[in-house]
Write a structure and sequence with these properties.
The protein is mostly helical and 142 residues long. The radius of gyration is 24 Å and the shape is flat. About 17% of the residues have low confidence.
Length: 142
């Protein structure tokens, strides 16, 4: 192992708090907000995948509410980063789609927040045509 050498070339000396602060400030000058937002989206997708139990060995970490929150946060941030990502935006959208599918399976196929599920009672199904009652036809407002 090599001995620590300070900027002044003194071996074995720990950097001072002032030197650490200056190094931190120099690194912060390089960071762009866009980069942090992109990294946040990637982190949310990865964490959402864990909370959906998609990664091997994470089945015991399943938490549908955490997955939903990750999806909602990514959906809000996507418009901010898509122009920066260019063609890579499609890969992020695909990862989000996969997470949404995993959430739908994990949540038992329930309708996403704000959408009404298909009617369950025979009386409600009686008022619908065959395509609607099959659950295969999406009708705006229903």
């Amino acid at each position: 192992m090599l001995p620590r050498v300070s900027e002044q070339g003194q071996p074995g000396r720990q950097p001072t708090e002032e030197e650490l602060r200056a190094a931190y400030e120099a690194e912060l000058k390089k960071v762009r907000v866009e980069d942090v937002v992109v990294q946040t989206v990637i982190s949310l997708i990865n964490l959402g995948g864990r909370k959906a139990g998609l990664a091997p060995g994470t089945e015991d970490e399943r938490d549908p509410e955490q997955v939903r929150q990750a999806i909602e946060a990514v959906k809000v941030l996507m418009p901010l980063i898509e122009p920066m990502l260019g063609p890579d935006a499609e890969r992020v959208r695909e990862a989000l789609s996969q997470l949404q599918l995993a959430y739908a399976r994990l949540a038992g196929g329930s309708a996403p927040e704000g959408e009404q599920p298909a009617p369950e009672t025979p009386e409600e199904k009686q008022d619908q045509g065959p395509a609607q009652s099959s659950g295969r036809l999406w009708v705006p407002g229903q």
